[in-house]
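job 3f2a | input accepted
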Amino acid sequence: MYRIRFVRLLAITVCTAPIVTLAGEDWPQFRGPNRNGMSVETSLQSSWAPEGPKEVWRQPLGEGYSAICRVGDRLYTMYAAENDGKAEEMAVALDAATGTEIWRTPLCERYDTEFGNGPRSTPTVVGDKLYVLTARGDLAALKTEDGSVVWQFSAPEKLGSSIPGWGYSTSPVVDGSTVIVDLGGTESRATCGIDASSGDIKWHYDSGRAMYNSLLPIEVDGKQQFVTVYLGKLVGISPQGEELWQHPWPQAETHAMPVLIPPNRIFASGVEGAGAAVVELNGNEPKEIWKSPVMRNHFSTSIYYADHIFGFDNATLKCISATDGSLAWAKRGFGKGSMIMANGQIYLLSDRGALVLFDATKDGFQQKGKVQALQGRCWTAPSLSHGRLYLRNHEEVVCYDISS
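job 3f2a | predicted structure (404 res):
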């Protein structure tokens, strides 16, 4: 069985009569506590009024695709903005209750592309530090208290790597005292295990350019590993940087993360002819269970729930069987959206800012609420923590109260 590797924090709020207890959890990294796009919170609204859930606050934010993390009473993310006359990428801490800025730390010159400027990676918060990666490949550890830099280095300068065409997009994963991240270095330094305290490289694996997807930490048959997709292969890497297994994958850029189908199957998906596949792990021998073009994730990673996979096949929302890949239903109209899940329901943000609530069921698309939350391009997945939903685009961040 796989094992959860992040400690859930319990917050209790006591109100006047009748007494109500609300339990919530932090959202400390990309795709939530377990990097699977899912929250265990249950005290949430099951449907919304026509005007949508209550908006708590809305604040300006700079360019970027970095998602929102929440730990305790603070939010952490990254964006790009003018700073002393220069366009820079920076990490920022916000007050979770109001969205007001607590601190910001400039990290590098802004990275610009035709599909949006600024950082793509999401911070990872562990203890009193957050680990961030800019679109130019500056990896840094910052203090959560004030944003001061503990250590920082440039991947292109230190590892001889090249900035990917759309910028560094992978989000760091932290395993104990090690930060693991795909930096695309030369001399077998594509993926590195980095000392969380000093920034020194502890181990390294493979060579090749940096990919856009992020590593998935899992445990299968008592063996901890980190699963990711490279050009030409789907692989499992040990906590010491050793390759445990590999399975052929198309020579195609893959942006979406792999997904665990408990207890020992991996779902992977991509565009550019990659399609989708499920691989079963028995020891270090991967076996392909099925392969199909029915689900081609672009930048948004799918969600596994109740033996089905919910995700975007390019610009079509689909539900497919995790057992054989057969199509359960399909729904258009959300563009290339993104989504997360809690309490048997999915929170979808369309690529044009519509926030939609629907039931995670194989029995057709069942919408339970919708509101136009943001305008313009929205390619960043929502975050859910302590009954609050956090969304962003290139101009602002908005917080909704979805607690029951």
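job 3f2a | Residues 1-22 have pLDDT under 50 and may be disordered.
job 3f2a | closed
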